[in-house]
Specification:
By secondary structure, the protein is α/β, with parallel strands linked by helices. It folds into 2 domains: 109 residues, Cobalt-precorrin-4 Transmethylase, domain 1 (3-Layer(aba) Sandwich), CATH 3.40.1010; 121 residues, Tetrapyrrole methylase, C-terminal domain (Methyltransferase, Cobalt-precorrin-4 Transmethylase, Domain 2, 2-Layer Sandwich). The protein contains 8 helices and 10 strands. The strands form 2 sheets. It has a 5-stranded parallel sheet with strand order 3-2-4-1-5, covered by helices on one side. Helix 2 links the parallel strand 2 and strand 3. Helix 3 packs across helix 4 and helix 7 packs antiparallel against helix 8. The radius of gyration is 20 Å and the shape is elongated. The structure holds S-adenosylmethionine. The site of S-adenosylmethionine has 23 residues, from helix 5, strand 7 and strand 10.
Length: 237
């Protein structure tokens, strides 16, 4: 039975790749990746020579069929994404769903490693024993509902955001907070594991000000925490 390895890769710092991930990548028959240029950089850094095949969220059904054909030929495949853990706001689950329809016994093997949301959760100064992860906010419609859901949550909420919309999203939280009268503790992680890694903490207005004073650039994870530490989650004495 062929194997499909789901391999986590760094979210910035190449030193974060695991020894097991490197072994699996060098042993796989083929590596499925989002952007071959990104994955090629990792392979070159670790001197791994393997064929790459692009598989991304817009891949057509023919591509999935081709990948399934490879599995039929007993090829062992490794799936990586551009950064972090495949399947977490990244393509991957659709491929697994299609592959399992054809091979219900296919071994799907996770090779865990970096993940931006987990790295962000790990540096919070409030309990993250329980939390929600809501991926990216919608770009156009239903944004208000999305942020209302975050502020109504009894658990901390993590979401991903891009350079282009981070200030907009934090601004929308600020407006809704004013109406609710509860000011949340927020942690914004920028460029985790990279040269310009910065962690902003505090009420949303303070973070917006700090971001606007610097260069608003990079990748962001936002954690919306409690309005006071006994407000949500398990409190550790
Ligand atoms: N699968 C990835 C993971 O395991 O975290 C997430 C992929 S998602 C397409 C990309 C988003 O993750 C970025 O827009 C950003 O919100 C977040 N992200 C990825 N790398 C990051 C980093 N180094 N620092 C902060 N956020 C990051």
């Amino acid at each position: 039975m062929p194997k499909l390895y789901i391999v986590a890769t760094p979210i910035g710092n190449l030193e974060d790749i695991s020894a097991r991930a490197l072994r699996i990548l060098s042993e796989a028959d083929l590596i499925l990746c989002e952007d071959t240029r990104n994955t090629q950089k990792i392979l070159e850094r670790f001197e791994i020579k393997k064929p790459l095949l692009s598989y991304h969220q817009h891949s057509k059904i023919q591509k999935i069929d081709y990948i399934i054909d490879l599995l039929k030929q007993d090829k062992n495949l490794a799936l990586v994404s551009d950064a972090g853990t495949p399947g977490v706001s990244d393509p991957g689950n659709k491929l697994i769903e299609s592959a399992l329809k054809i091979f219900p016994d296919l071994e799907i093997i996770p090779i865990p490693g970096p993940c931006a949301l987990v790295a962000a959760a790990s540096v919070c100064d409030f309990s993250m024993d329980k939390f929600l992860f809501l991926g990216f906010p919608p770009v156009k419609n239903k944004r208000k509902k999305y942020f209302e859901e975050i502020l109504a949550s009894k658990y901390p909420v993590i979401f991903y955001e891009s350079t282009y919309r981070i200030i907009k999203s934090l601004g929308e939280i600020a407006v809704l907070e004013k109406n609710s009268g509860k000011i949340r503790q927020i942690v914004v992680c920028r460029e985790l594991t990279k040269k310009f890694e910065t962690i902003y903490r505090g009420p949303v207005e303070k973070i917006i000000k700090e971001l606007e004073e610097g260069v608003v650039k990079g990748e962001f994870v936002v954690v919306v925490g409690p309005s006071d530490k006994s407000d949500m989650g398990e409190v550790i004495d």
